[in-house]
Automatic annotation (TrEMBL):
Organism: Actinomycetospora corticicola
PANTHER family linked: DIHYDRO-HEME D1 DEHYDROGENASE, PROTEIN NIRF
SMART domains: S_TKc
InterPro entries attached to this UniProt entry: Haem_d1_sf (IPR011048), Host-pathogen_enzymatic-act (IPR051200), Kinase-like_dom_sf (IPR011009), Lactonase_7-beta_prop (IPR019405), Prot_kinase_dom (IPR000719), Protein_kinase_ATP_BS (IPR017441), Quino_amine_DH_bsu (IPR011044), Ser/Thr_kinase_AS (IPR008271)
Signal peptide coordinates: none
UniProt domain Protein kinase: residue ranges: 7-268
Compositionally biased region (Pro residues): 328-345
Keyword vocabulary terms for this entry: ATP-binding, Kinase, Membrane, Nucleotide-binding, Serine/threonine-protein kinase, Transferase, Transmembrane, Transmembrane helix
Class of enzymatic activity (EC top level): transferase
UniProt name for this protein: non-specific serine/threonine protein kinase
The enzyme's E.C. designation: 2.7.11.1
Positions of region (Disordered): 303-346
Amino acid sequence: MERVGEYELLSLIGEGGMGEVWRARDLRHDRDVALKLLPDSLCESEEYRHRFRRESHLVARLREPHLIPIHDFGEIDGRLFLDMRLVEGRSLQDLLDTEGALSAHRTVAYLAQIADALDAAHADGLVHRDVKPSNVLVTPSDFVYVVDFGLAHPVGSPHTQLTQAGVAIGTLEYMAPERFAQRPVDARTDVYSLACVLFECLTDEKPFPGDLPTQMYGHLTLDPPRCSERRPGVSAAFDAVVARGMAKAPEDRFATAGELVAAARVALRAAAPARRAAGAVRLPADAAVTTLVPGAALAVATPSASRAAAAPPRPPVPGRSAARDPHPSGPTPGAPLPELRTPPPVRRRRRGLLVATAGATAVVLAVVVLLLTVGLPGATPAARPTPRPASPTPTVVATVPVGSSPVAMQVAPDGRFAYVANRDAGTVTVFDVAAGAAVGTIPVPGSPQALAFSPDGAEAYVALLGAAGPTGEVVVVDTASGTVTARVPTGSRPAALAVAPDGGRVYASDPDGGSVTVVDPGSDAVVDRIAVGAGPHGLAVSPDGTRLAVTNDDADRVTVVDAAGGPPTPTPVGRAPHAVAWHPTEPWLLVADFAGNGLSVVDAGAGRVLATVPTAVHPQAVAPSADGRYAYVAAIDANVVQVVDPRTATVTATIPTGRAPSAVAVTPDGRTAYVTDLLDATVTVLRAAS
């Protein structure tokens, strides 16, 4: 079997003008990878080799879910290579070749994920330059990855050094006019290519087909083609989206890929207006939380305090939904919920209660009924419920719409409400546990990635990625008023959050800095950074608050460190470990091995793996049951959640969920578990205890 350096070439995945991609065995790390070998013609240029290394380093730092991680890069025997995570799937080009034109819903869903990847790269100053269907990988669960960022190009740079026979490197069918003229490129260059991909997905045709001169003439001089004229049945509403995306002048295009997708979603709604399902209730926009009680109309609002540093949250941006509507006769996934609004706050953590109804008797009756049957999200928390014995075979009891792109979910300590992070919408959805429904949204000033609550549930912490740059922040939300009361810049992009059991510290993993950022909730300031090794992603605090555990996904290990700082203790575990949780009663760590397709049980004190349980493909998240008897593992590309007994190292149940299950949350009493379905804009509700 052929070897290239420390890689054993197993089978050829694909090849093209930019080289070959092999399924290869990384003999150093004992794992299968996707190995891209660039052509010798590119390797001859010292300037290109230098730029390749520089840009590959930048791309390797990106942590956007729709970008395939780069493990390593460099030269082997004078040939440039990229070592990437191996992901099973088909290219979008292959789908078009075999299935023809895609439905508008499916097209927009794919483009939304491509746009996420592009906008993340653009925020770091990188342009892909070769956006096309063959550089888009689609998994069996319709999760999308953008590949070939080895061609990424610095924003604002010219093309003069990157030509072959006078033609800019890239694919002509999707090339923006400024590329042919060798003018500087920026994010709008990729927007042009993305608009070409939109056109092709809807019509199964290239915008300007033909030979090289014909393609160049079309991109440089002809008006963008109309989807509705090329393929019957495509709504004319998409014509304007393609026309703006393919405008000849960059300043006339959408500024970001996300803006193009937002316009495509508007066109999608114009083509097929969504109908509200019978029984679906839209809450008033000016209500904080509205709960319907038989015989009475009740609006409950709770004023709370703001801080001097509070900043007004931004309006929500258009959400992104799944490729196909999983609830055609029910509430529309991704449909906007009412924004939470409250009277001006008065003092921090002081709880007020305003009740408005038809009369004094109705007020008393309604309040009693509400508090006895539902409870108030964000109210003064009750005692933590006693965990019930978990079931080895939980059942699905509901699938609930919670807004677009639900990437994370946390249940409040009192178990009465939960927050859902809507990554693409820039909002947090409030979920009423007793009602089993979303009851409102909270705008946040960025893209929410992770959530955590203070021990008393009075505040929530939300990790955000910045909308216009590679930095991020942690924002504080007053749960009574549903308002952002503080913003803490972290100087990096936080990936996961955890709160000390006593509430004295908030921790955020920093994949770029190789550390955990420590925030003091009292001063709302960063007070420390704890080194934990390269690429920390998942994060958890031990039940006693003395230790932190992080997953170093690029290094294939889990690291434990004292919460007060000190030397980290790494333990090799699985492949690309993504998430970690502490067992509630044992000194164990539960680690989801994303690329290893397993759940590892690790002795945190001894630093050794006790057992590894094979799971469905790509376990993304893990959460223990309240009593610790079982762990719930969400496999994002298998569309299942699995129940694992960590003591016997066995899978006791495999339960279908919606598409791309990305997170798991369990109520404190152990009765219910929630799985966020990233591509379906829903939460799958499991009855977890008998």
